[in-house]
Amino acid sequence: MSKVFPVTLTQQGAWLLDQTVLPGKVAYQTIKTPEAMADAIRTMVVRGAPAIGIAGAFGLVLSARLAVAENLSVESIVIKLREDAELLNATRPTAVNLSWALREMLAVVDELTRNSSPDISVILDQLTEKAEAILAEDIAANQTMGKLGAALMPKGAGILTHCNAGALATGGYGTALGVIRAAFEQDSTIHVYADETRPRLQGARLTTWELAEDGIPVTLVTDGMSGSLMKAGKVQAVITGADRIAANGDAANKIGTYNLALVAKAHNVPFYVAAPRSTLDLSTASGDEIPIEFREEEEVTTVNGERICAEGIGVYNPGFDVTPAELITGIITERGIVNGPEYQVGLGKLYN
Ligand code: MRU
Question: Among 32, 100, 216, 264, which residue has the least CB neighbours within 10 Å?
Fold first, then answer.
């Protein structure tokens, strides 16, 4: 079990483990308003698809707390919750977990207010309960995926992962790193390779920290090294998380994942994606329809605040890419593993 929990709801507000200062500092921010939560998601104090979904749900609890403190009417609370859900949802477009969690929260309000006008404290209580359930279910899903996925990892495998799909990116434990954690419990001879993950360095800063905290052996590589690593026979499986999986199995994940899948294919190394139900978007037919977040140029042109390239150049900075289903060996979910090329049918069967 990982000891890292990136998002916690307390009486004082939502605590976020500040992922912008790790691993140099382990510091928490206390978030008290939905606006502050939206900023924290946008600036990646909290990041990773399931974690921002949970943070969004907590943002709506904060919204309801403020409404109760101001003694707003039920009608005004409902309007405010909807506005805040829109604000939170606009922060990061690719990870579908955010809109999923916000919809789950608003469904609670719809249900409560459809035929009656409940006490506003009841709305707050039920939203709190739902948000805590979203968090608890995410951790449980990760642990189940871990067990299922661990069985796919060959004994003594070198396992390459990209970005951070760990406890930090989820409620706790992790998707891809959950599988790695579970595999390590059974076989301490596995070895992890972590891509540094330019430009935000989630692999270098977060994945290596998280694994080192748990005593899981990890070697850091730059994003361009996967080909040479595989050619050298050091990688027996690649596993990543996902930010949104379309109905046909195409999976959006951190930029660079697509390259990795191509290199894995070229070297006959299995490429797995681990993701919970909240990452599936069966209403999106294929990866072509997944909205891709483009981020500011400075992420690419600067390192630690210092410009590293000439002025006046072009910069291309999509935060995510889409790995086509045919490059994915299997999708590990908490309800089972779906193997390609049966994604369309398999994912629908598990989740409809
Ligand atoms: O931009 P980020 O750091 O939020 O991107 C995160 C990723 O791409 C993760 O790999 C993905 O969310 C899966 S997390 C379990």
Answer: 32
Indicate if the pLDDT at residue 195 is higher than 80.
yes
- With the C-alpha atoms ordered 121, 125, 130, 131, is the resulting torsion angle positive or negative? positive
Phi–psi pair at 136, nearest 5 degrees: -65, -40
Atom of ligand 1 nearest to the CA of 240: 10
In this structure, the answer to whether residues 251 and 120 fall within a common structural domain is no
- Is pLDDT of 160 > 90? yes
pTM exceeds cut of 0.85: yes
Query: Does a structural domain hold residue 1?
Result: no
Is the pLDDT assigned to residue 1 strictly greater than 70?
no
Structural domains in the chain (count): 2
- The reply to whether 258 and 344 lie within a common domain is yes
pLDDT of residue 28: 98
Average of per-residue pLDDT across 305-325: 97
11 lies in the same domain as 99: yes
Which atom of ligand 1 is nearest to 49's Cα? 12
Q: Which residue's entry shows tokens 């943070």?
A: 55
**What domain range includes position 40?**
7-142
Give me the active site residues, please.
243
What are the backbone angles phi and psi of residue 9, rounded to the nearest 5°? -95, 125
Q: Which of 63, 100, 53 is nearest to 84 (CA)?
A: 63
